[in-house]
Amino acid sequence: MEIIRTGMAGTMESSDINVVIEKQEAKGIKIYLNSSVEKQFGDQIRKVILETLEDLKVTNVVVRAVDRGALDCTIRARVQSAVMRAANKENELDWEVL
């Protein structure tokens, strides 16, 4: 999926995550994570972000995430929403549960 602008989803409230997706010219995915539970769950949060981007076929982006203890399902939903906004395809996400 092609990222054409910056997309953002989420809040700074407890149990949520704020995700910003930006296009980058360099190859690959860079994830910058600031989390109140990073020592315990930082690897898992990065894994969920990366898997969600891979499922959406997103490459060459920078992800900036500020986590306040979000569950995996919330992380996935915020990343999906930010990507769709960044790709200008907000109304095209298939919300079917896999």
TrEMBL record:
<feature type="modified residue" description="O-(phosphoribosyl dephospho-coenzyme A)serine">
    <location>
        <position position="14"/>
    </location>
</feature>
<dbReference type="Pfam" id="PF06857">
    <property type="entry name" value="ACP"/>
</dbReference>
<dbReference type="InterPro" id="IPR006495">
    <property type="entry name" value="CitD"/>
</dbReference>
<keyword id="KW-0597">Phosphoprotein</keyword>
<keyword id="KW-0456">Lyase</keyword>
<keyword id="KW-0963">Cytoplasm</keyword>
<comment type="subunit">
    <text>Oligomer with a subunit composition of (alpha,beta,gamma)6.</text>
</comment>
<dbReference type="InterPro" id="IPR023439">
    <property type="entry name" value="Mal_deCO2ase/Cit_lyase_ACP"/>
</dbReference>
<dbReference type="GO" id="GO:0016829">
    <property type="term" value="F:lyase activity"/>
</dbReference>
<comment type="function">
    <text>Covalent carrier of the coenzyme of citrate lyase.</text>
</comment>
<protein>
    <recommendedName>
        <fullName>Citrate lyase acyl carrier protein</fullName>
    </recommendedName>
</protein>
<comment type="similarity">
    <text>Belongs to the CitD family.</text>
</comment>
<dbReference type="GO" id="GO:0005737">
    <property type="term" value="C:cytoplasm"/>
</dbReference>
